[in-house]
Amino acid sequence: MVKYKWPLFVLILTFMVADNFLYGIGLGRFKKDRAKERVDLVREKMKGLTPQTLVSDKPIISSGRKAWLQIDAMIIAQEFGLKTLNGYTGNVPTGY
Fold first, then answer.
1. Handedness of CA 53, 40, 36, 95 (dihedral sign)
2. Would residue 46 count as lying in a domain?
3. Is pTM, for the whole model, over 0.90?
4. d(CA 71, CA 58)
5. Is residue 12 predicted with pLDDT exceeding 90?
6. What residues make up the domain containing 66?
């Protein structure tokens, strides 16, 4: 097994590097500035809420990943010390 150590290392390294270039368009990539806009929008809406406020986010949007907005709302609620109620499970149904 020792004599295959370097070829195996090179092969694995090649696959790891190639993985960064394959299927890049179809994956869930997004631009950082668009994510920041989403977070800033939610942050602005929650800015004046008191810690006694219960937050339940139900985004009304027609495009994009709604799950991202729900996660953004949970994170911002934590930032402001608000109680959150959410139904996000980590699995997004097809077409949601």
1. positive
2. yes
3. no
4. 11
5. yes
6. 29-85
User: What is the per-residue burial (b if ≥16 Cβ within 10 Å, else e) of 44-80?
Assistant: eebeeeeeeeebebeeeeeeeebbbbbbbbbebbeee
Could you read off the pLDDT of 25-68 as tens digits, one per residue? 556 666 788 888 888 888 888 888 888 887 766 656 555 566 67
Q: Residue written as tokens 């989403």? A: 38
Q: Is 54 within the bounds of a domain?
A: yes
Res 30: pLDDT: 67
Neighbour tally for 92: CB within 10 Å = 14
If you average pLDDT over every residue of the chain, what do you get?
76
CA atoms lying within 13 Å on the CB side of residue 60: 0
Return the structure tokens found at 93. Answer: 């149904």
Candidates 70, 46, 45; CA nearest to 57 is 70
Number of domains in the chain: 1
In a domain, 66, yes or no: yes
